[in-house]
Amino acid sequence: MPKTLTKFDPAATLRDSEAIAEYMAAAFETGDPSYVSHALGVVARAKGMSEIARASGLSREHLYRSFSENGNPTLKSILAVMETLGVQLSATAAEKATEGDSEPTGKRKPRKKMTTKKAKVRKKSTVQKRKQEAV
Asked: What is the reported pTM?
């Protein structure tokens, strides 16, 4: 008889503040912004999205959309949800890698160059703004 697998939902395991803090700390350690926002969404679902929406002043739909797999929450949304959840964000000095280390240095990837079409549109809109300011 074949076994059926069920999809694991980490929200079901996040029962107390300590488990939530450990889960979020692990998410922040990845350094992946999309994973961090997804993890925050999982924690919000564990606590109850409606409750989080009421306490944070954000709509439930906005929270689901922002913290979905393809979402892109604003810093305002992230901080509001974290405050509601009782999770704090703190900063520490980054450790510098020594010459022999193969660890990433934490530097940002270079920006992608604009396509010619985007550059022309941006240039055109900037020129139009300057003309309006001159008038």
From this structure: 0.60
